[in-house]
Amino acid sequence: MPRRVQVIGAHSADFVWRAGGAVAKAVELGGTAEVIALSYGERGESGELWKQEGQTVENVKRIRHAEAEAAAGHLGASFRCLDLGDYPLEIDGDRLLEIADERVPLQVEARCWCGARATHNARVVNGEVTYEGETVVVGDTSRTVGTPLFGDVVRYELLCRRHFRDGDLGR
User: Is 125:113 a contact under the CB 8 Å cutoff?
Assistant: First the structure.
């Protein structure tokens, strides 16, 4: 097991469902883990916060930072955000090179809930694996106002080929 794991995600909370298990396992086995977010997701991932009267961008960022830092801390990882903006994400090549220079290659194999190698990132809508419809919908993982486009709850889960084909989430 590597001594150091670095997880890089677009938004401050993405690591929780995309790499949380790998982070926890690495730390459990004696390694260290760092989570880096490119953005706080202050515009597209923070809809509920904007419903609070008098909300500001800086306060949303502060709240999102505290949430991500707490989640990373529960997994035993540190957290930092490059704060490159959200809608639009302003890619700063020099800032990305900073983290690229710190990178330590890691071979990780994703696993399905059954233990088999995961080959599919299944889109799960209201508890059911979906196979049709839009494959990219910006902001589709948060609750929507009015009639939901795909249902009330959208998430993604790594599955092996058999469980993806069968729509079996192991519950």
Answer: no
